[in-house]
Structures are given as structure tokens and as C-alpha cells.
Amino acid sequence: MRHARRLDGIPPTIFAEMSALAVRTGSVNLGQGFPDSDGPPEVIEEAIAALRGGRNQYAPGIGVPELRTAIARHQQRHYGIELDPDRQVAVTTGCTEGIAAALLGLVDPGDEVVVLEPYYDSYLAMIGFAGGVRRPVPLRAPSFRLDPDELRAAVGPRTSLILLNSPHNPTGSVLTREELEAVAAVAQENDLIVVTDEVYEHLTFDGRRHVPIATLPGMFERTLTLSSAGKSYSFTGWKVGWATGPADLVAALVGAKQWLTFTSGAPLQPAVAAALDECPDFPAKLARSLEERRDRLAAGLTAAGLSPYTPEGTYFTTTDITDLGWANGREFCLALPERAGVVAVPMAAFYDHPDGDGRHLVRWAFCKDEPVIDEAVRRLAAADLSA
Ligand SMILES: *Cc1c(COP(=O)(O)O)cnc(C)c1O
Fold first, then answer.
1. Is residue 228 in contact with ligand 1, taking CB distance under 6 Å?
2. Does 91 have pLDDT greater than 80?
3. Is Kinase a UniProt keyword of this protein (predicted)?
4. Cα(324) to centroid(ligand 1), Å
5. 15 vs 18: CA distance, rounded Å
6. What is the model's pLDDT at position 261?
7. Which of 78, 225, 274, 347 is the most exposed place for a label (fewest CB within 10 A)?
8. Helix axes 41-52, 268-278, angle to 10 degrees
């Protein structure tokens, strides 16, 4: 196998392996986080109308004006953030490209990037591609809170950027205002940029509300906020995301984005604009439905002898498999399809050290339809899951 050295140390995404295992074994796939049901049908009609209506050539690199203004209105309506849609908003090919373009546009080789651990797996790859060095700050089970002292200890003279994610995948924790204030203080004391992945901004539970760190005093100027229609509107396959923030940070992201994809799916952009403007209640309803499904899966996991962490947001819950006598989440997840016909994901995939803090943790997705969750629960109940 020939490949460039930049791919060394970047394992293939765990989701490909686990989803293939699910197909091969006929298992219920609670591994990869995508919903079974699509977003609003009227938004799909908008996409069809755009396809038929001649919106099929290159869109402007920063995105079509109607989507950029809809994103600006969204940030205003939810968070009171005022944006110039021509200079402070850019459309990306999903949040994934937003992460890539932000890191390539803002991180110099040798710069240190502070990142919450466990982390979404593309962070590892993209910090590496940018030539940056990861400085993980642990969110420790079972509460997954951020310890401000550990954050401070991770920052050094070569740190240029904090890469934040809240609501947080894979732990399901939502950073509190106090935790965000600690991040803001560290960023300001050390003159750091914050890039914040807020794709689960609307998917919070039990009355909790997501606070964008860009709304904290003094933070707008140094924060690049990333989000996407994928999670908020159940269109994960559309890959329409966006970046918002001060013009210089958005320009840095666009500086890299123009050489990655140049521009993103033209006919999907007016449809996402319609979703933001005309279906503003969809994400909150989705969150309430996800909260019910969270509880359904949690009851099933509890009945199977596991004690799930109660996530505050996102698609995911986590369990500690030492409850069942296992030590290694990867071994558990490889045995699970045969034992129970269910696929979950070992959390070790989201840590720097597979034998470290996350070794004994497993992530389960509850963004699936209720009958799918019920079937998984039935299978888990009927199986012998002990080590
Ligand atoms: C799903 C996800 C993404 C990717 O978003 P896309 O819009 O599908 O590219 C980014 N970050 C986190 C934390 C995610 O869970």
C-alpha cells in the first residue's frame, strides 16, 4: 500500500468498519449517527424545485445569498448575534468541510490545538493535515465535565487555537455557561482563536439550552462558529454547513475552502434557506422526540445490565462495559453483533490513547426510529452480554 506519511497514525474512520460489520451480520446499527427518518418534506420539495428551476451550476464560493441571509437571521433569532451575511457568513460542504477549512486556514505547522477528548474523529485527521499538534483536555466519565485547571494546563506558548464542540459528540454533554466562561477566560488570557463545532446546537434535552461561546463578552471577535443542516434538520446526507464569525476568521476559512471544494451543492442551498426560515420549529420538535428515544434506549440498556450516562444533548449515550465484566470496549463491540445482533461503537476510537480513559466506554446512537430501538432492546435483553 502506497500512501503519504500524513495518513500515518490516522486510523480509518471507525464508522465504516462498524457499519460494514452491521451489514455483514444483519445487526441493528446503533453505531453510526444518522437518523432513519428524513427532515421536513416541504424542504425536499424546495430542493426538487431548485433542481428543476435551473439552480444547477456553481454557486458563489461563500454560498448563495438567500442561504447566507437565512443563516444570519437564524443566529439573530436564536442567539441575538448580528451578522453581515456578505462578510461574516460562509456556506461549507457540511460541518466536516468547515472543520477542515478552519484548521487549514488558521493553524500553522507546529501550532498546538487544544481539543476536548474524546473528540469527533475528523478533528484528529484535520489537525494532523494542517501540521498542528493535538493537546487533548479530558472530559472524564461518568459526568464528562470540563475541568478548567486541566484546560489551563493544556495551553502553552505554541497554542494558537481551541477547538470546541458543544453539545459534545461522543459524550452527549453540553458545556455549561460556567465551563464556557472558563474557556473564554483562557482564550482571552492567551490570545487564542476558538473554533466551535455546534452541529447539535438545537438537540438539547431536559429544558437545557445551548449557549454559543460567541455570545460571551469579548468572544465574538475571536470565535469561528460552525454548524450544519445535517443534524438540525435530519439531512445528514446533504452536507450543507456554515461558518459564522468576524470577517477575518471567516475569510481565513474561505481562503482554504476555495481550494477544497470551491463551492457547495447549489440546489440544496436554497432548500436549506427555506428550512431555516420556514421550518424554524423543526429542530426543537426533533429534540423532544430524540429525548423520548434517549429514554427508551436507556431503559433497554439498563435492563441489559448496563448503566447508561444520561446525555444532555446529541444523538448518543455512553455506557461503561465494566458493568458486565468487560475491560475493552473494542472487544465488546466486536463480540456484540454475534452475541446480540446489535452494533455499537467503542469510544476508544475518539481518544489519543486507545488504552487510556475511554477503553471501557461504548457509544450507542438513539437517533433511530422507535421500532429500530425497540428491536435492538429486545435483542440485548435476549442475549448473554457478560464477558
Ligand atoms: C455529524 C458531525 C459533524 C459533521 O457534520 P456534516 O454537516 O455532516 O459534515 C461534525 N461535527 C460533529 C461533532 C458531528 O457529530
1. yes
2. yes
3. no
4. 31
5. 5
6. 97
7. 78
8. 150
What is the tens place of the pLDDT at every residue in 196-240? 999 999 999 999 999 999 999 999 999 999 999 999 999 999 999
Q: Which three cell numbers stand for residue 371?
A: 421500532
CA distance 142 to 234: 28
Ligand 1 pocket test, candidate residues 13, 67, 96, most atoms within 8 A of CB: 96
- Grid coordinates representing 264? 457547495
pLDDT over 80 (residue 52) = yes
Q: Which one, of 77, 79, 181, 170, lies nearest residue 119 by Cα?
A: 170
Is 100 a pocket residue for ligand 1 (Cβ < 6 Å)? Answer: no
CA–CA gap between residue 249 and residue 228 (Å, rounded): 18
List C-alpha distances in Å: 10 to 1, 14, 26, 110, 125: 15, 11, 28, 18, 6
Torsion of Cα atoms, 275 then 278 then 283 then 289, to 10°: -110
Q: Is the peptide bond before 40 cis (omega within 30 degrees of 0)?
A: no
d(Cα 294, Cα 205) in Å, to the nearest integer? 10
What is the rounded (10 degree) CA torsion for 161, 33, 200, 45? 120
- Residue 280 is predicted with a pLDDT of 97
Measure the CA–CA gap between 12 and 387, rounded to whole angstroms: 27
pTM above 0.70? Answer: yes
Tell whether ligand 1 has an atom less than 6 A from the beta carbon of residue 263: no
Which residue do the cell numbers 507546529 mark? 110
pLDDT tens track for 160-200: 999 999 999 999 999 999 999 999 999 999 999 999 999 99
**Any atom of ligand 1 within 6 Å of the Cβ of 197:** yes
* 43, three cell numbers: 424542504
How far apart (Å, rounded) are the C-alpha atoms in residues 154 and 162? Answer: 10
Q: Taking the CA atoms of 127, 129, 132 and 133 in sequence, report the sign of the dihedral they define.
A: positive
CA distance 283 to 145: 25
